[in-house]
Amino acid sequence: MIYLDNAATTRVSAEVFEAMKPYFCEQYANPSSIYSFAGSAAKAVDEARRRTAALIGAQPNEIYFTSGGSESDNWAVKAAAEALERKGKHIITSRIEHHAVLHTCQYLEKHGYEVTYVSVDENGVVKLDELEAAIRPDTTLISIMAANNEIGTIQPLKEIGALASKNGILFHTDAVQAYGHIPLDVERLHIDLLSASSHKFHGPKGVGFLYIRKGVRMGSFLHGGAQERARRAGTHNTPGIVGLGAAAARAAAQMEETIEKETKLRDYLIKRVLDEVPYSRLNGHPSKRLPNNANFCFRFIEGESLLILLDQKGICASSGSACTSGSLDPSHVLLAIGLPHEIAHGSLRLTLSEETTREDIDVTVEAIKSIVERLRSMSPLYEDFVKAQREHGAQE
User: Can you give the pTM of this predicted structure?
Assistant: First the structure.
């Protein structure tokens, strides 16, 4: 099997799994308990908090553990909006956010909030002039993702954060795809709230965190006990939190090396596909993109058929976000960058990991070439297109 869907989830690394194991059956105490047996679990949670914070230049007491990216996004957007509703009820986000942000904003719209959805350019970069023009006296929150989960485009966070800071607006970034993959510094980027999820960088599923800058006043999302300094109720998922911390430390130690390796393989993949598959295009920014992301569209085919045939060859890929798989609608991200429906339907996302090899890429490209050729041979639209091209060439 060749696994090229690391944006959907990653394999838990061996060292992360080993770090988690004692907290299932040996050190299984609830870290909130006061007896000595719980002490080791409490210390492990504290260490994970320190490691998690260090990767983004935050303080440990600014990290709040959650069940993952979707909860963190919901908490950030809803709680920040509610906390500041006396100042105003206007939020700014982009058209290409993950649905955890978009659907939360739509929920708030039904409850009296106004949301401006800023456009992006053809590479998926947020239009800064449009964002700045959208700022109003009653704007309380800007939520723009760090890097897009489908096309990999990295956003100009520093400029967005500076705009927010200058105008006294909270800045939240969904960093689910970026945390652990590219350098992030909450101070340098003027970030007030940041969401991340462990399973995107070789940690376990079901655990993530929300960074809340010290001094930001916002309420709880889950109510109940006093865990997480009374801001997020629920018994700590100690093994998961330990795994998150171990994955964060691992990412910090090898980020530079991993970025270099993945970028070389990614660029090799992109060049081969664009050079060898006719009528293909790269989606997203050509260089300001995640080191492991390559997203293509192939004209005259359906992406779903391509995925099924790749799967039959033992290659795992996707057509976009794992959260929208099964939907017959084309990607909202691809439509936002200006692609027509018929082209957006032929999308393929390949996301690498440190374990991906050049041989994996070669096998995958050869499979794509043969499958695309096969699917196009059955397409009357492609047949008509080729015929029209020939007639046009003859006339010239």
Answer: 0.95
